[in-house]
Amino acid sequence: MSAVAFNRHGVWAIYRFEMARFLRTLLQSVLTPVITTSLYFVVFGAAIGARITEVDGVPYGAFIVPGLIMLSVFMESISNASFGIHFPKYTGTIYELLSAPVSAFEVVLAYVGAAATKSVGLALIILATASVFVPIQILHPVWMVAFLVLTAVTFCLFGFIIGIWAKNFEQLQLVPMLIVTPLTFLGGAFYSIDMLPPAWRTVTLFNPVVYLISGFRWTFFGSADVDVGVSLAMTLVFLLTCLGLVAWIFRTGYRLKN
Question: How far apart are the C-alpha atoms of 79 and 91, rounded to whole Å?
Fold first, then answer.
């Protein structure tokens, strides 16, 4: 019975270790999103806000807040989760983890849980910072939290996969910088895709990030570029895909046992 029991002590040990690593750089981790958010408001407010006062009846400064939060969640989730699992691979301590009495589910739960905790915390800091610059009203706070946590967990799983796949620290930055960041900027983070010509709007709908940002923006303003049900469905599909890949990795030992 003990072999199949949930090892909460093992999960808590990994989770606490990952959070302690985050807390050692707490000042840097907090200051970075605050400064970055402030710069976005200064730059976008001065350069674009003067020309685009409203989008769908929402002041432009408030309109970009969900996009800013999602951009941070995407990058922080991938970065925290990928580094968390890649570092044991780099140092060789991954074999101690694999031989410990913790299941694959418990390992993923601890690493992804810690990374998601950091990402959600930073998202709330960005939200608080944004509220200093513009008045923010969240029409669906429960759904906002649900979308935030769901997106953070999904991208933490994605980052976990990248951390296992990467052979070095340079490859850890490859997917976030060359794929995720461009998709975010082209996914309606700072504009409505309805502002695009019909042909480009159709092309944009093939960008999965559009659905994540659109659904999250709906929780703030009650309007979105894509139906909120479709956004939720696409997010769940991405989540299940990542779960399937993680399960396959542990089942085959891909880049874990060799």
Answer: 18
User: If you write DSSP's letter for every residue of the chain in order, what string do you get?
Assistant: -TTTS--HHHHHHHHHHHHHHHHHTHHHHHHHHHHHHHHHHHHHHHHTTTT--EETTEEHHHHTHHHHHHHHHHHHHHHHHHHHHHHHHHHTTHHHHHHSS--HHHHHHHHHHHHHHHHHHHHHHHHHHHHHHS----S-HHHHHHHHHHHHHHHHHHHHHHHHH-SSHHHHHHHIIIIIHHHHHTTTSSS-GGGS-HHHHHHHTT-HHHHHHHHHHHHHHS--SS-HHHHHHHHHHHHHHHHHHHHHHHHHTTTT--
Spatial separation of the C-alpha atoms in residues 250 and 256, rounded to whole Å: 8
Query: Are 66 and 217 in contact, with CB atoms under 8 Å apart?
Result: yes
| Greatest distance between any 2 Cα atoms in the chain | 66
Indicate left, alpha or beta for 173 from its phi (over 0: left) and psi (-120 to 50: alpha): alpha
**pTM over cut 0.70:** yes
**CA R_g for the chain:** 19
Q: What would the pLDDT profile of 103-162 be if each residue is shown by its tens digit?
A: 999 999 999 999 999 999 999 999 998 898 888 889 999 999 999 999 999 999 999 999
Q: At what angle do helices 141-165 and 228-252 cross, to 10 degrees?
A: 30
